[in-house]
Structures are given as C-alpha cells and as structure tokens.
Specification:
One of its GO terms (biological process) is proteolysis. This protein is mainly beta. It contains 6 helices and 32 strands. β24 (365-368) and β25 form a beta hairpin.
Length: 462
C-alpha cells in the first residue's frame, strides 16, 4: 500500500503543531484521558520483561521493556498501517527527535524507506551481531496506544480505541535477534524527549511519572504505569504509592553515543549508592567506584530491566560475596556454601535454607543511598535464586554476578560499577518522578502481604 501523501503546507503544519504540542509544560495544562498501564510479563527462557502496546490499526504488540532506552522501535518489515508518516530531515521535529542521520533516495513505498527522512537506531541489547546494532532505520509518526487505568486505581481496561500520535523508530527483522519469541521491538522509558513517559505526558498533559512493579511470579504479570502519581491498588487493596523512600535520579553526563570532543548524556537512570551493608555491617569498598566519573561516565549505580541479575564490578563483587558468606555462616543462619551453579559463585543446599514470606532467611543486603536513613533493603526473595537441576543440584544461590573490571559501554564511555538487575527489582515498587528527578522505592512488598503479581487487569473486551 502506498504511503498517503500530504501537500507540503499541510505536512509542515502537522509537524510544527506536533512539535509545539510535545513542548507544552504538563504542569500548566489540564490532564486529559486516564493514565496508561500495561502488564509486564517475564519470559522464562530469556528472563526478559515484556509489555503490551497497540500499533498498526491497532493490533496487540509485544515489546521488550528497556528502562534505559531512549524510544520505542518496532520491526517495520511487513508493517501494516495507512496512517504513518516519516519525519523529514532539517525540520524542527528532526532536531527535537535527535536523528542520527538523513536517509536519502529510497523510493519504495514502505515505512523502512524514504527520501530525505530522519533515521534512528533500533537498539537491541541482546543482539550478538555488532553490525546489527549499527543499523539505522527511519523514524515514524503513527498511532500508538496502551491499556488505561480506571479511576479506582486498581483495574486496567482496554483503551486501544483511543490511540494517539507517537514518534518511534522502525527496525528490521534482523534486529529481533535474541529477543523473546513474539516480541517485535523495544519500549524505551529512558531520559529522552521521545521516551514513552515523556511523549505521553506531553500529549495528554499527564504528570511526568511512571512506575514499575516487576512480578516475581512465574505465571502472573507485574504492571507498568505511565502518567499517574497513584494510587496503585494491588492485592488486599494496598496502595503501593505509600510509603516510599526517595533518592535523587542522577544524570550520567557521558552516554554511549559520546565522543572525545562531544559528550552526550546517558538516557539511563542512575542512583547514588554510597555504601553497601551485609547483615547490618558496612562492606569496605573503593568509594571512588560508587561515583560517576564526569570525564568518561564510568562508575556509579545504574538501574536496568535488560540485565537479569545485579552486576558488580569485580572488587565490589568480591567484597560483598565474602561478607555475605561470612555472615551466612554465623548464627542464626549457620549456612555452609556448596558447589556453585553458573552464573553464580555462592550457593547453599536448598534443604538447609529456611524460607518465609520474604523469601530465604539469609543476611540482608542494604544499598545505602544519599543519606544513611535512605536504604534499599534486599531480602532473601531478591538476593537468592533457586536453581533446581533435574536429577542434579537443588540450591539457593546469591543472585549477583561479577561484571569484571570496569568494562566499557562504548569506545569512549565507561560502564557503571553497579547495575541493579531485574531480579532484584521484582516485587519492589519503583516510581520514577521525572519532574523532580527522583526515584521512589518500596523495597520488597512481600513483607506487606502483597506482590507485584496481585494487580488486577480487566479481561479484554471483544
């Protein structure tokens, strides 16, 4: 199907007013429409987190949840829509989007082709091919929608009948390498002008908030919320928006697209972990590793939904695991480590580990933030991973992995010292406040008698 053509004046006006609309200050406008919500499924084979959106007519679309990515991208090979538009180069919208380059002289009538159109990079963190992650594809404007949250704050209902115009990137079939079956792209929630929460806020004048509650259940989903400060009603009517502890969201000034003579800020979210305690005792660490290096962006603590288990720089990993083993061997735990199972290095026989509602009874790991009284407490439900091999080992393993010695994010940008992975976020409620740039976090909600799997989604209407 040929792409619908607009006359030049109308096309210019469309993009001009779209740009102005995106630039509106949310706090100065009335809120329109209910907030957005999506189930977050965890794929058992890849450990990837997946949300649901509606595109192309619209139809249900599964997207990788990538907390730190800048925007949405979707495989446009076979993309079926009559409403999409490319973004012309050298326009205000081109500059606003931050296009990587301009595609020229591609005359086919399909979303992955255009003449003098803006291109973005469809990034896949699981793609093994280096050349695949260097591909560029046209940026599109088309309809996009998610489920909505009703006014009770407890039940999500279908809202695909109310799509809105959104900017995202195309991708190609080869960009799907390594993604879970049925996933056709990625949903970016990162620090950028065209991430999902920022675009939704500009279009519907929502508060610039989003929240994640990743499920620890093997069968039931968690939930993602966009454009609401709460309430977030989970099982037993518990509102997870309170109480929360708060810590600043930090900007890393050197992102992966930086060059020696041009620094570009990272789109990923960092927090200021200042110390780590195991069983209440501070672990001796090289403090400089906990700070973000303004020169190359290395160090600090990043949040990631595409890393399954928390990664620690080698010296931090060694110090934390040694402290954990020592504490676990003492009373009241009295645990003796056994042969580890990859990718972990500290494991205990499952039969020797007592369990409670908060998970295995093991030493707590505290991530101390900008103040000593602001602590992300990691209990057994988030620190220990059950590994049961058929006919083999049945163990609980400390769910942290060695990230190596300062690996590189890119040629010019360093890697964080700590990456808090998805498993450590499960059954923890996280609220990202993009207006005040702070993170609200709950630590494990299991101790409150609820879970991230207890949010009720309405059945989809026929």
């Amino acid at each position: 199907m040929a792409m619908p053509k607009l006359q030049v004046p109308l096309l210019f006006l469309f993009f001009f007013f779209f740009f102005v609309f995106l630039a509106l200050t949310p706090s100065r406008a009335q809120t329109f429409g209910p907030p957005l919500v999506s189930p977050i499924q965890k794929d058992a084979s890849t450990l990837q987190y997946i949300i649901t959106a509606y595109l192309q007519s619209p139809q249900e679309t599964k997207l990788l949840l990538d907390l730190g990515a800048s925007y949405i991208w979707i495989n446009c090979d076979g993309y079926n829509s009559s409403s999409y538009r490319h973004i012309p180069c050298t326009t205000l919208l081109d500059e606003f989007v931050g296009c990587f380059a301009c595609l020229m002289n591609c005359r086919d009538s399909n979303p992955n082709c255009g003449d003098s159109v803006c291109v973005l990079k469809p990034e896949n963190p699981f793609q093994s091919s280096i050349s695949g992650n260097e591909q560029y594809a046209p940026a599109l404007v088309d309809y996009f929608s998610m489920l909505t949250l009703d006014n009770t704050g407890s039940i999500g209902g279908p809202s695909s009948s109310s799509p809105f115009t959104f900017i995202f990137s195309c991708g190609y079939k080869e960009n799907l390498e390594g993604l879970a079956r049925g996933v056709t792209g990625s949903a970016g929630l990162g620090r950028s002008s065209i991430s999902i929460p920022v675009q939704a806020s500009a279009i519907f004048h929502y508060p610039r908030y989003f929240a994640l509650c990743l499920s620890g259940s093997k069968t039931r989903p968690g939930a993602a919320f966009v454009g609401t400060k709460g309430p977030y009603k989970f099982g037993r009517g518990i509102d997870l928006s309170k109480p929360l502890a708060y810590t600043p969201l930090l900007l890393n000034p050197v992102g992966k697209y930086s060059y020696p003579d041009l620094k570009k800020p990272s789109s990923e979210y960092f927090i200021g972990v200042t110390s780590i305690k195991v069983n209440g005792k501070a672990v001796a660490l090289n403090q400089s590793l906990l700070d973000i290096d303004s020169g190359n962006g290395s160090g600090g603590t990043k949040l990631s939904t595409v890393v399954p288990y928390t990664q620690l720089e080698t010296s931090i990993y060694k110090a934390v695991t040694e402290a954990f083993v020592k504490a676990a061997a003492s009373s009241p735990f009295n645990l003796t480590a056994t042969k580890p199972v990859q990718p972990f290095s500290v494991c205990y026989p499952a039969g020797n580990v007592r369990t409670t509602r908060a998970g295995p009874t093991v030493p707590a790991i505290d991530l101390v933030m900008h103040r000593n009284d602001v602590v992300w407490k990691i209990l057994g439900s988030n620190s220990m991973v059950r590994v049961a091999e058929k006919g083999g080992a049945d163990v609980w393993c400390l769910g942290f992995v060695d990230a190596g010695v300062r690996p590189k994010t890119s040629i010019f940008a360093g890697d964080p010292s700590i990456v808090i992975g998805g498993y450590q976020m499960e059954d923890n409620f996280l609220q990202f406040e993009l207006e005040s740039m702070r993170l609200g976090f709950s630590s494990s909600v299991l101790s409150r008698g609820t879970s991230c799997a207890s949010f009720r989604f309405a059945a989809k209407k026929g």
